[in-house]
Design goal:
With about 100 residues, chain A is an alpha/beta fold. Chain A has helices at about 15-20, 45-50, 60-65, 85-90, and strands at about 1-5, 25-30, 55-60, 80, 95-100. Chain A has a single domain (about 1-100), classed as 3-Layer(aba) Sandwich (Hypothetical Protein Ychn, Chain: A). The longest helix of chain B has 12 residues, at about 15-25. The chains are: A alpha/beta (about 100), B alpha/beta (about 130), C alpha/beta (about 130).
């Protein structure tokens, strides 16, 4: 399943709820304010790193760029995709769960 | 699957989400509702909006059983985090025509793990 | 592949409408079909032609109208949500005794059944909101 998360993990529990319910082998795409979860050195960075042991984590590049987050500030292993990649992820997964 | 994560009244998502479920019931699909996080507050009994002058739509949940929406999954962990138990929720029921029209509870408390399995099996998931 | 898109928030206040728009455009560019775009909750506010955003910013409403025209998209604004928030076409205005309408080109007002159908008919349904 593709899970998208659009909220900052410091604002609400959407990311935590998503990660608590997503199965191993999921694709997790951070979009909009959700991309803040992809940055290094935060209280959730370790959670993201743990998640990457069993699922794939992506971040929407235009949203990172909009927020001034440079590639070197992104957790290693988080894959950056554009909107075309977002579309592709929604094609390759049978279902999309858009966490709000 | 309709995913409800927000408390009632503070925002319109619970009310308008319920409207989708009721309309959707006419389409003969296999549906369920899931209440996670603050969504569990939507089912709390005793809601009274008379002093706030806003709509009390909580009685509408009672109609779900009549519309064949009889699988309301409430995440146990979310309830516990909020100091609630099954007894704090409205008693919502449905009548099982395959079992002599016996009245059965629509709300099922499920663990996060069970919810995860349920979610994985869905074709379409709507978040409000 | 056939997509349905649900937009739950209005223009500018949330990024939802922008993300939905960018996704829709990318899906069309990749050769996919958009079955329907359904606007619900405050998303109905994407359907008013009365907005005047600053000149140096994107025009969210017009952008949707133009994309719809270019690709023959079906953009539906939920009637119940629209009535609550004052988005109307000429028929709704007449039916409800209002002195004007404000629906933008390319949008049509219809019931929640269109959302359910959108979920059933499409291969994928994505929700953009708050």
């Amino acid at each position: 399943m593709l899970h998208t998360v659009n909220k900052s993990p410091f604002e609400t529990n959407s990311l935590e709820t998503c990660l608590g319910l997503a199965k191993s082998g999921s694709d997790i795409l951070l979009i909009e304010d959700g991309v803040y979860a992809a940055t290094v050195g935060t209280t959730v960075s370790v959670r993201i790193e743990e998640t990457m042991k069993s699922s794939r984590v992506y971040a929407l590049a235009p949203d990172l760029k909009a927020r001034g987050i440079r590639p070197d500030q992104v957790i290693v292993g988080v894959q950056l995709v554009g909107y075309d990649g977002f579309v592709e992820l929604s094609v390759t997964n049978e279902t999309v769960q858009c966490w709000l | 699957m309709y995913v409800n994560r927000r408390a009632p009244h503070g925002t319109i998502y619970a009310l308008e989400g319920l409207e989708v479920v009721l309309i959707g019931a006419a389409f003969d699909q296999d549906v369920c509702m899931v209440f996670i996080g603050d969504g569990v507050f939507q089912l709390k009994k005793g809601q009274d909006t008379s002093d706030s002058d806003i709509k009390n739509f909580s009685p509408t949940y009672r109609a779900l059983g009549d519309y064949d929406v009889n699988r309301l999954y409430v995440e146990r962990e979310s309830l516990e985090d909020r100091g609630l138990a099954g007894g704090d929720l409205m008693e919502l029921t449905w009548e099982d025509e395959d079992d002599d029209w016996n009245e059965k509870p629509s709300i099922q408390l499920v663990s996060r793990q069970e919810l995860s399995d349920l979610m994985e099996a869905q074709d379409v998931i709507l978040n409000f | 592949m056939k997509f349905s898109i649900m937009v739950n928030e209005g223009p500018y206040t949330h990024q939802a409408s922008d993300t939905a728009f960018n996704f829709t455009r990318a899906a069309l560019e990749a050769g996919h079909e958009i079955f329907r775009i359904f606007f619900y909750h405050d998303g109905v506010n994407n359907g008013t032609r009365m907005t005047t955003p600053p000149q140096d910013d994107r025009h969210v409403v017009n952008r949707w109208s133009e994309l719809a025209e270019q690709h023959g998209l079906d953009m539906v604004v939920c009637v119940a949500a629209a009535q609550r928030r004052g988005i109307l076409d000429a028929d709704e205005a007449k039916r409800n005794g209002k002195d004007g309408d404000n629906i933008a080109p390319g949008f049509r007002i219809s019931g929640l059944g269109q959302l359910i159908e959108a979920g059933i008919e499409a291969d994928r349904l994505l929700v953009f909101g708050d």
